[in-house]
């Protein structure tokens, strides 16, 4: 099996690369960090592939030598928060949308034709999409786009299985900068376990940790005015 993973130089992507390679897959570990890619290359079955996921031509050039994948996991992304919505930071918004959503489109153009019939496409979104949350105007909007995109692809792709991943809080270098509590946070290793198990079963959605994501799913039934009032209380 040949598995390509974007965002493989840290967090969930790094753990996915290590676990899939340990299972015997040939892993194409993609990212921009040359030093981390070199470290991953010391693991058996991992081949580093350096490109910028926001640059279509860079993706195409870097992956030109690969003809076919069994599985493509689009995991690369970034997280920044809008701290002052009244003075909206459009530059921050653009950075996050580019990193989390537009990059998916570029990867799809470059990589989707190379997924073999019967193969799998995995898009990593976030459980932030279940409910509007404070300061999440950029991150939440980008991940909501990823979730909608994955659901549409699941309809339109007849020979590729699509799995949408909605993680809760995961302890990674990206979330280490969070200045707020992260209830029921799991390790990157545990997150990779959840994803690999769900992908193996070809589930349409993988969400975790279940207790946390089920709470969010249940809270979606609240009328919007009630949720907005509760959410405003989180900012105080």
Question: Care to describe what's here?
Answer:
The protein is of the alpha/beta class. The protein has a single domain, classed as NAD(P)-binding Rossmann-like Domain (Rossmann fold). Helices cover 43% and strands 20% of the residues. The protein is built from eight helices and nine strands. The chain has helices spanning 11-22, 34-40, 56-62, 90-111, 137-156, 188-200, 210-219, 224-234; strands at residues 2-5, 26-31, 46-50, 69-74, 115-124, 160-167, 170-171, 186-187, 205-208. The strands form two sheets. A seven-stranded parallel beta sheet has the order 3-2-1-4-5-6-9, with helices on both faces. It is globular, with a radius of gyration of 18 Å. The model has no long low-confidence stretch (mean pLDDT 95).
Distance between the termini: 49 Å
User: How large is the count of helical segments?
Assistant: 8
Structural class: alpha/beta
Strand content: 15-25%
- From the 3D structure, determine the CATH topology: Rossmann fold
Q: What's the β-strand tally?
A: 9
CATH C-level: Alpha Beta
Q: What is the H-and-E element order? A: EHEHEHEHEHEEEHEHH
Alpha carbon gyration radius: 18 Å
Overall pLDDT confidence: 95
CATH architecture: 3-Layer(aba) Sandwich
Helix amount:
40-55%
The number of domains is 1
- Counting copies of identical and different chains, the oligomeric state is single chain
What is the CATH homologous superfamily assignment? NAD(P)-binding Rossmann-like Domain
Shape call: globular
Strand order, main sheet: write it out. Answer: 3-2-1-4-5-6-9
Uncertain ranges: none
